[in-house]
Design goal:
With 268 residues, the protein is of the alpha+beta class. The protein has eight helices and ten strands.
Length: 268
């Protein structure tokens, strides 16, 4: 059975559709909302109104209809579409997210996927830069629940950050294109932030703001780590935070594994 965040997400998608279509909440929207306490329903209402307003401003054509597509397009060339908005002779697809705090998670690849997609190498090639015996010892300690995930991530992070900077410096145009693909900038992701207390804090979109400049060669891309975060590589564009990659130990079926995943976090 879906948990509360999933009901919030589906209600947000469906209610945004209804608002764009200029109709009252439809039965499938009401069904999702009914699973939520009144405070969360108010959050969804506000978030959907703000998301619909953003979409209207983002479009270059009058809206004829909006359709919430559920999971119909998932898995089709990585398509993450939740909402399709149609005009007289064109359409635009959107991926919708709603968050209550800080950052939005736009992607969760394995460390190997990051190495292949951003660095054109394997995870093993990256680990060659480490003391392999030390890494495998620490990985096994994590798998045995002797250390926390962040201790495993901290071993890999400096090498990952340095290798990412090296890929940027070697061919920044290609590296930025790979980043744009990884972040799925062509998916028109919209993340709306409404806190649990019901306060609207804005929208982040892949079509506007700092994140949209990832593929712009006329901007400055900085890649760095900080002393107070042993698990994240930060990416700034022209001095503003675009996103961060946070590395963490992999867990499957409740069991820690001697492997690493990552999360792409975008500030809201």
């Amino acid at each position: 059975m879906p948990d509360t965040p999933e009901y919030i997400g589906k209600a947000h998608e469906k209610l945004t559709r209804d608002i764009l279509n200029g109709v009252d909440p439809q039965p499938d929207t009401v069904e999702q909302l009914d699973h939520l306490p009144s405070g969360q329903q108010d959050r969804v209402q506000l978030g959907s109104e703000k998301t619909a307003e953003f979409i209207r401003d983002d479009l270059s054509f009058p809206i004829e209809s909006a359709t919430e597509v559920g999971n119909e397009l998932r898995g089709v060339s990585g398509d993450d579409t939740d909402l399709v908005v149609v005009g007289a002779a064109e359409e635009k697809r959107y991926s919708l997210k709603m968050v209550g705090s800080g950052k939005v998670n736009v992607r969760n690849p394995t460390l190997n996927t990051i190495c292949e997609n951003l660095l054109d190498q394997s995870r093993e090639d990256l680990l060659e830069e480490l003391d392999r015996d030390d890494y495998h010892e620490i990985a096994e300690r994590y798998a045995e629940d002797e250390i926390e995930s962040k201790e495993l991530a901290a071993v890999v992070l400096p090498v990952l950050a340095e290798t990412l900077r090296g890929a940027r410096d070697q061919d920044e145009v290609v590296f930025r294109e790979r980043l744009a693909d990884e972040l799925q900038l062509d998916s028109n992701t919209i993340a709306c932030k409404v806190t649990d207390a019901g306060y609207y804090h804005g929208i982040v979109s892949t079509t506007q703001g700092t994140l949209s400049k990832v593929n712009d060669p006329n901007t400055t891309l900085e890649i760095y780590t900080t002393d107070n975060s042993s698990t994240s590589v930060f990416f700034d564009i022209d001095g503003d935070r675009a996103f961060q990659i946070s590395v963490y130990g992999q867990n499957s079926g409740g069991q820690a594994r001697a492997a690493l995943r990552a999360a792409y976090w975008v500030p809201v």
